[in-house]
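User: Continuing from earlier, I have the next pair ready.

Assistant: Great, send them over.

User: Here they are, in order.

Assistant: Folding the first of the pair now:
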Amino acid sequence: MKAFARATMGLGLVVGMTAGASAQSWDMPTPYPDGNFHTINISQFADDVREATDGTLDITVHSAGSLIRHPEIKRSIRSGIAPIGEVLVSLHANEAPIYGLDSVPFLATSYDDARALYEAQRPALEEALAEEGLTLLFSVPWPPQGIYAKMEITSIDDMEGLRFRTYNPGTGRIAALSGATPVQVEVADLPTAFATGRVEATITSPATGVDSQFWDFLEYYHDTQAWIPRNMVIVNSAAFEALDDATREAVLDAAATAEERGWASSEEVTVSATAELAENGINVITPSDALREGFQEIGAQIATEWAEEAGESGASVLETYESLR
């Protein structure tokens, strides 16, 4: 049945690509629940496209991995199973270094720096996507990342042996350098993983903590503000180019609006979600100097490794970033 469904979706994409200005329906897989600010923003994007095209392009958002699981979304768009979707950029850092840049710890910890990093990164990101037949529509940041745990962590030494949830190559490297035990877990599975003891700590945003009601199974949030990762909305380039000029322009206009709206929402959610964690009994802690220094050392090593792997093109992106800060 899964094979048949994928074949049917692929056929639908081909038909849509050849339909010109006729009405089209696009299925859009996304990883996060309906109440998440990323999903809310994307749903508004879909509404804006539908309104601007008088229904010529109808995008149906399938949230929370209900259509395609997060790790498979980018591949499904590339292969034509789905025409459009949302992914965490750094989830694909193993494919090309540029995908991991926004998740290098302590490289960009403020929204101003995150904006500058995105501006510096975007041309190389678009180039990498283009090589896979993909087009970047927009990218929106998560709130700054902090450490959730069942116990207070006062120094990097406390990470030794801790069952630490990882979700991309960057968090896997943090686990390795801190001596933690990496456990690969998707967002939707975190409540069960914490409740069963499979996971004892994770680095993620206050928004994710609220979405998954972390207060039901842990007690501490260390507000390290380690980095500001981003999601990206991407489209199959062939499907996008098959749209008529007016429809493509409507999609690009809606994407530009969604990007600005999403950045503003992210900053608002940082404040509101952190407050909601505290209101529900989680101890929101300013990290100790020892913990911050330990993570800064790890961040410096990861940044060095990234620059070595990325080579001259990576060095150019970092130089541009420094000039924009």
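And the other member of the pair:
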Amino acid sequence: MNHEALISLAVYFVLMLGIGLYAYRKSTSDVSEYMLGGRQLHPAVGALSAGASDMSGWMLMGLPGAVFVSGFSAAWIAVGLVIGAYLNYLFVAPRLRVYTEMADDAITIPDFFEKRFHDKSRALRVLSSVVIVIFFTLYTSAGVVAGGKLFEASFGLDYQLGLFLTAGVVVAYTLFGGFLAVSLTDFVQGCIMFVALVLVPVVAISAVGGFDATQAEVLASPAASVPDAPSRANFFNWFQGLSVIGIISAASWGLGYFGQPHIIVRFMAIRTLKDIATARYIGMSWMIVTVIGAVAVGVTGVAYVNEHNLNSELTDPETIFILFSQVLFHPLISGFLLAAILAAIMSTISSQLLVSSSSLTEDFYKTFLRKEASQTELVAVGRISVLVVSLVAIGLAFDRSSNILSLVGNAWAGFGAAFGPIILLSLYWRGLTRDGALAGMVVGAVTVLFWLYAPIEIDGKSLSDILYEIVPGFVLSGVAAIVVSIVGRDVLPHVLHRFGEMEKAMEEGSK
């Protein structure tokens, strides 16, 4: 790696740490500011922060790698995500912004659940907190894996050293700067990702000789050098090797949006209800461009690798973006593009660390250990929680063979199935009870885990290979929540009254 590229990366690291210092001085005086930025997030910052924290390393590594191996049939995931993100902005964002503030200023999802259902047993808070900590630790480890692969492929550094370098900078600005630091760094990182995912495919297509030449090279190239990789003859066929169940399985990634705490917490923090629509326009425009760019990187990667006989050098398809940054650009630009990958990785890790920290602080420490803890003490506990979760995630990421897209997919399904139906029902159905919400969470999480780890095979394939686990998890979670709520019809009057107050506030806020 050239010194110029190292300079670009160093500038990026200094910028991130500088933002963390600014946020530390501006908004970490109490736990609400540290965890939610005082609900004063600008819509543009909220939109790009949600997008950057959503896409993570899989956007620049996982998705291009999947398209490189399987062709357009792998892009159904992107289609499902775009649709799911739009529906999330449309149906969840406005109501969640109003309802969480009305629910005694709930600043975490478990906090909202407890106050929404007036749950004095604390069962909802505890269960949802456990789900958050478990699945986010797994999710965070996926980001750390991506960082390790980046430093190994780009700098020739030891994979494990890359894990610590990636996590170290993220922990520094997240631990000290809190939510504002995470959101502002996400905004900058989102801008970097946008530029990179427009620049790289455009330059790569030009290097191959244009669209027609790119298509011809792709069709003439051999299958990817990974087990069971399909031929390139049907590379541009959206339905290659896919059944109806396969398409549903890939597109169903969009269902996960309704239950991702690190994304929907941005909606809670945007300063006004009217700003939600602005955030939706900005966020969806950003997402559509970047997703198309990521798919294009995978496509042009096949053409370029075949044209220059680089198949033997590209041992990991998930590093195709890294290869492009090294062979097509000046070292200074190469450093910027590698910073884009780090931006994608770090934005998600920081968001996940903060949500895990807020859950451990608000939903465990304050609720069960120190009810009278001062704001200063809670902020300190939040910072310690960031450090602890990051260390556990690093430990899980030590397995060099971990697949980024697979790790992300497992955690994404866990959140989507456990929280998605409950979030939607809690915002739109008065009849949902506490017991219904509990049943839905348990059934959703257990179904995902069963689908992943049950020793059951059909025609030699595991359940998760046949159908993405979020589909049965989401459906059964919703069914369980509805059935249990209807069977136990004793919906408390004060819950209905509280919900009515929230709906009234929603109507007034939209005027």
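Worth noting for the second one:
Strands lie at 457-458, 461-462. The radius of gyration is 22 Å.
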